[in-house]
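Intended use. Records like the one below are meant for learning the mapping from a protein sequence to its folded structure. Do not use them to infer anything beyond what is encoded.
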Amino acid sequence: MVKIFNEADNPELSEIIDDVHELLILQCQRYIEFHNTIHITTWDEAHHRMPNYVGIADVSFGFGISNHYYRGNPHRFIIINWVKCTDAEIEPNEYKAIIMHELGHLLNSPDFLAEPDIIYCMKNKLPYDKDTHQQVRNSNALNNELYADSYAVLFGYGASLLTSIEKYNAIYRVIEYYDERVRSINNNVQLIGFVKPIVPFQ
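Structure written out for the chain above:
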C-alpha cells in the first residue's frame, strides 16, 4: 500500500499499515499483485480533495474507493478517519481489521447481480418490479459487506473486526446487516471474490 500522509505526523498508523503489509505480502497473492495500486491515507489529509465523500467519512472509521482520480490517474484508495477512530478508542488490531475489511472491498468483491432497474428491464424487455429491484439491491449490499468481512476473517482478524463493529454501533447506530455479518464472522465463513477493476472515466 502506498501511504499518502505524513508518516512523521502519524507513526502509529504507519506502523499498523506496515504490519498489515508484511502479513499480506507473505500470504495473499492478490495483495502481492495489486498492493502498489492501493493508496492509503487519512481523512484529515484527503478531505480537501474528496468533498463528495464527506457524508461517508462523517460516519465511518474507514472506507474504500475503487476508482478515485489522483494525480491524473484512477487509483484504489483506503481512507482512515483517524479522529473518529481515536474518539472510539480503536485498538491496533481493530485498525488492522478495519484496513483488512476495506482491502476486502477492493480485493475480494462479490460477483454482483445485475440490478433490474427500469432501464435494465426496458433493454431486456422485462416487466419492472420495484420489490424485485430492491431485493437485488439488498442482496448486493449484503454480499458486499460479507465478502469484505471475509477477507479480514481469512487472515485472522475476525474477532477484532467484531469489536470494531461494536464500537461503531455504540457511537452511531447498529450497522446494516448486523446479524448476518456477525453470524458470518463468528462462523469463520470464507468467501472468495474478485478484484475490483480500475476503470478510467470515459
